[in-house]
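quick one, 254 residues, struct below
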Amino acid sequence: MDAAHIAAAAAALGTGRGLADLPPGQRPHDRAEGYAIQAGWIAGPLIGWKIAATNVAGQRHIGVDGPLVGRFNAAMVHSDGATLSLAGNAMRVAEAEIGFVFSRDLPPRAAEYSRAEVLDAVACLRLGIEVPDSRFADFVRAGGPQLIADNACAWQHVLGPEIADWRGHDLAAQPVLARVGGRYTRDGSGANVLGDPRTALHWMVNECRAQGIPLLAGQFVTTGTTTNPLEIVPGDTVIAEFPGLGRVTAHFTA
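---
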């Protein structure tokens, strides 16, 4: 794709809702083109990243061959206990997630980053509740490159408390309990995130490295849902509890 087609695709995604597909000339053919389009329409300084499709069932559901990376700017990120409007959100799900904050930059380079290097670059852990959405009417059939262009369905994210003393925790075995108002609860585990949230973070750093995307000190990465997605409606309060680590809360209105 040339620069004009990338810019046109970015403009369509930045303003569009309920899209069928991008026009043939603007449709990305691979991950690199998807990330180029994504970068063209997420405005403002980036403060965080997300990883989507971090379990095999989710990948099969949306027809992708692996996880996807998306971006968060400041307007998309909210403090613990925030109230979010669901206006315009078609997915209407929330996701209880484990995230990490970088203590130093991880610039693109030829050699892969080792798991030890990646974990050494983590300042702290942050819990979160992600609220995704897609610009496509039928995101299940959009395909990986278009979903990357769609910012991996990033929409809003609630950041919970910072946890500095996390390295002694087995994040793969970390239990999770999500409460959706008084309507239902759902259990989960860190193992639902590529087997271990640390594995997801390592994958993400090398995905960005391979795409020439720098990761910066202070940015966070949320690693994917630890439970099955939580169906939400206006009036719900979601409380995601991570025993031994903490909890994070989000409220939802129409």
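Residues 115 and 202 are 6 Å apart (CA to CA).
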